[in-house]
Write a structure and sequence with these properties.
Rossmann fold; single chain; 20 strands; 9 helices; elongated
């Protein structure tokens, strides 16, 4: 088992392209850390630096308190599962899983025992004599994971291992990976652009954008308390709604003004927002916190709009709406509520669930301030 830490790590490619900038991250022993972000944010580069497949431009990487910057990948005692599985096509499943152990001169009986044990964990015992071309995508993914397991490494590194699977298989396989982590209890670092994978797999998640770590915390903390507008908009399906407006004093109380409509704040953030009075800000609220009836004990915070699209999804309806000034937003509502395109409605915001951000892609969430 191992702790993994990055301190002020930067990676600059040829042409002064900064892929990762001043990244500091601590991954505890036995923890499942998911690094998530859009394509090009630097997450895979960071994983490859931990693995030793990319050199570090600046900063320090440690595995179990040992600086590994200059240690080759084979001596870092980690195992990596790649996006394309990287199986040898001319070898059987058994031979693919055993290959790394053979290179390390393990005894034949020990190799056989480890491969059969890993195959049993993954439910692929019956596939050991097949070659990769005879396997489905999900089976190849299990073989790639099995090849990592037999190494019994200090840490597992996963580089988007589910991205080549269909949607249904991704859901079942990520549940299997979570269960496997509980059984193996090994430090795992998992890279993905899929926020659902991040939320369901990670003990903690690290959100990246433009090569910079934005927030590291437990999944629900990141979801409920995003530190900035990017994090708030990246996590969630559908994503958080945003409205441009101003904090203004109206009738002796601070509120958020969107065009001609006023949104009242919860008491927990009123004092904080006084300092932003008269400034352009951004209001954020998640689709599940919008309703067609006022929340209990709240008679205000309605926003008039017109329905432009209704998507029935079985357990809910996603309703796309537009205000008179052109703001577009989405609400999740009860699937049995009758609502139609072009219908004029008032959507009510739950004041307790409102966040206020400074302008800009990474505008700070000022509602978190005390």
């Amino acid at each position: 088992m191992a702790r993994v830490s990055l301190k002020n790590v930067t990676k600059i490619f040829e042409g002064d392209v900064v892929a990762v900038k001043d990244a500091s991250l601590d991954i505890a022993d036995k923890e499942f850390m998911v690094i998530v972000g859009p394509s090009g944010c630097g997450k895979t580069t960071m994983l490859r630096m931990i693995a030793g497949l990319e050199d570090v431009t600046e900063g320090i990487i440690k595995i179990d308190d040992r600086v590994v910057n200059d240690i080759p990948p084979k001596n870092r005692d980690i195992a990596m599962v790649f996006q394309n599985y990287a199986l040898y096509p001319h070898m059987t499943v058994f031979e693919n899983m055993a290959f790394g152990l053979k290179l390390r001169k393990f005894p034949k009986e020990q190799i056989k025992e480890r491969v059969q044990q890993a195959a049993g964990m993954l439910g692929i015992e019956q596939l050991l004599n097949r070659k990769p071309k005879a396997l489905s995508g999900g089976q190849r993914q299990r073989v790639a994971v099995g090849r990592a397991i037999v190494r019994n490494p200090k840490a597992f590194l996963f580089d988007e291992p589910l991205s080549n699977l269909d949607a249904k298989l991704r859901v079942t396989t990520r549940a299997e990976l979570k269960a496997l982590h509980r059984r193996l209890n090994t430090t795992s670092i998992y890279v993905t652009h899929d926020q659902a994978e991040a939320m369901t797999l990670g003990d903690k998640i690290c959100v990246m954008y433009n090569g910079i770590i934005q927030q590291v915390a437990e999944p629900m903390e990141v979801y409920d308390k995003p530190v900035n507008k990017f994090v708030a908009g990246f996590l969630g399906t559908p994503p958080m709604n945003f409205f441009d407006g101003q904090v203004q004093l109206r009738n002796g109380s601070d509120c958020f003004v969107i065009g001609s409509q006023e949104i009242q704040f919860a008491s927990r953030i009123k004092n904080t927002l006084t300092r932003y009075r008269g400034k352009d800000m951004v209001l954020g609220i998640r689709p599940e916190h919008l309703t067609l009836v006022p929340p209990q004990g709240q008679s205000r915070n309605g926003i008039d709009c017109r329905v432009i699209v209704v998507e029935p999804l079985g357990d809910r309806k996603d309703v796309y709406m537009e205000t008179a000034r052109g703001d577009k937003f989405i609400a999740n509502i009860n699937p049995h509520i009758d609502i139609r395109v072009d219908q004029a409605v008032t959507m009510y915001m739950d004041a307790e669930k409102i966040s206020i951000f400074e302008p800009g892609n990474t505008g700070k969430n000022v509602s978190l301030q005390g």
